[in-house]
Amino acid sequence: KRTYVPGASYHVTLHSASMTKAFATRQNKAEYITRLANYLSPRETRDSSRHKYSKLNEEVTALTYCLLDDHLHLPVIDLSGSGMTKRMHRVNTGFAAYFNRAHVRRGPLFDAPFAAKPVADQDHARAVIAYTHLNHVSEQLDYEFCGHRALMGEMTIDWLDTDITATGADRMIELGTRYLEAINDNHGMNVWLGYEGEYAMR
Q: Model confidence over 102-157: pLDDT tens digits?
């Protein structure tokens, strides 16, 4: 069983199984994001049978996201140490059932439940956020299924915690300012250049 540190930050990723693009259509992307919001939004949400969704926003907070045709990037703070696992299990199980029914298929939709790499410090956090937002190579910051505009204050996504200083995670306190600096300097490419870690340019 996976264990995570309460209050720690993680870069969560999720990949479609080989030869499958789980989020290839706009409809599928919107469906997955709606399912995330159902659990993470502070507002009341209900399923098709009018049952209330159990809320996980006090156990895990999502900072931003980018959803591509075959994978997801989702930086989070796992407040309880178990909220991340609960959220990903519920969302992924429900979406996989939806996708398999729609496409008349069987079997796993994702290559693993999810991956979660610890965010080491503020520089790493800055790299993770910028990398996430720039992951869509052709559209980059104008991409629809991305949290950039919410972090910049241009729109509201109520299941994202864009007031990062309110989370209480010390490593995220200055992230907002650092992110703006990165984006304003060549769309954040400087974040990768010379960064000795996962996000260094190859």
A: 999 989 999 998 999 998 877 777 778 878 887 876 666 778 999 888 877 788 89
Distances (CA, A) of 24 to 21, 31, 84, 139: 5, 12, 24, 15
> Residue 97: in which H helix or E strand, if any?
helix 83-103
165 secondary structure, DSSP code: G
Q: Which residues contact 171 (CB under 8 A, 6 or more apart)?
A: 9, 119, 120, 121, 122, 125
Contact 4, 81 (CB under 8 A): yes
Q: Note whether 27 and 43 are within 8 A (CB).
A: no
Nearest alpha carbon to residue 58 among 83, 87, 85, 76: 83
Report which of 23, 31, 8, 47 is spatially closest to residue 125, judged by C-alpha positions: 8
Strands 71-78 and 66-67 come out as antiparallel
